[in-house]
Model the fold of this input.
Amino acid sequence: MHLKAPEHQVAGHIAKDGKPGPLVDDKGRFFKPLQGDSRGEIEVKFYESFSSNTEIPDHIRRYFPVYHGTQAVEGSDGAAMIVLENLLSQYSKPSVMDVKMGSRTWYPEASEEYIQKCLRKDARSTTVSSGFRISGFEVYDHKELSFWKPDRKLLNGIKVDGVRLALRKFVSSNTLSDTSSKPDSAFASSVYGGSNGVLTQLLELKTWFENQTFYHFNSCSILIIYENESIHDDGARAQVKLVDFAHVHDGNGVIDHNFLGGLCSFINFVRDILQSSDESTDN
Ligand SMILES: O=P(O)(O)O[C@@H]1[C@@H](OP(=O)(O)O)[C@H](OP(=O)(O)O)[C@H](O)[C@H](OP(=O)(O)O)[C@H]1OP(=O)(O)O
Ligand SMILES: Nc1ncnc2c1ncn2[C@@H]1O[C@H](COP(=O)(O)OP(=O)(O)O)[C@@H](O)[C@H]1O
Done:
């Protein structure tokens, strides 16, 4: 089995200081290291529960990576990995964004030290103010014919205006590293709009979150993906997926207000960009 580091990972842990990072194979699978201090265990428990939960409708299941169990991986010093569907395997020039949901990324059962660390990051980013933060993104630059990724440290500190700008850059065709040029939002309607676009998918998820009480998706991310190669012909093939279940808890019959609130807020940001790009094409 030939394994390599994923080309378009936009957030989360990477192989560093002897610790394994995620890997992908050529058969469409994504291997995520089992994280220590119960996180790996919690994520496996979630995937086992979710994949056998017969009350999850198919139209919702498609928003989650397919789970293929766990496996000790030779290429990674025998480390145990969670084996998932590689969400990017069918994309050749993907733009990818990771949006961490919720107005708090901590939960009462966590250690005081962990809560304090989360609180600092939540307050410094748009987590507290807007109910989500952009954790990372990478865009295909149609002018430079290469991928562009903003600096993670800078991205972590952006405020609401920065989020609006990032959401526009994510769907723009002009040179993205040039801070003086205004993003043209050329792909806003093909990526965010339409019956298969991001907004429609987010609204479908919202309907489920308004009712589901199985799980509380603490610190979970929405991954947005689209294809640049086919954007002018076959379309953007935009997909919304949920990833990172290392802090999911039982919902115990209670709505996940933290995720739902963040989702509603994120929907409003996406809708605003769609509306403003419609207005600019009308003029
Ligand atoms: O260690 P850090 O500071 O890189 O924090 C990780 C976060 O990075 P960031 O907030 O972007 O700096 C990281 O955030 P992203 O996935 O990159 O959005 C996770 O929150 C990670 O925790 P976990 O894997 O969800 O348990 C976080 O790891 P832990 O601090 O929880 O180990
Ligand atoms: N199933 C997947 N297929 C493809 N890429 C993925 C998948 N899951 C996660 N990723 C990539 O890895 C990043 C980190 O994933 P995540 O599960 O949040 O890891 P961590 O727990 O280290 O934060 C995501 O932002 C995304 O770029």
Q: What stands out?
A: The chain has a mean pLDDT of 94.
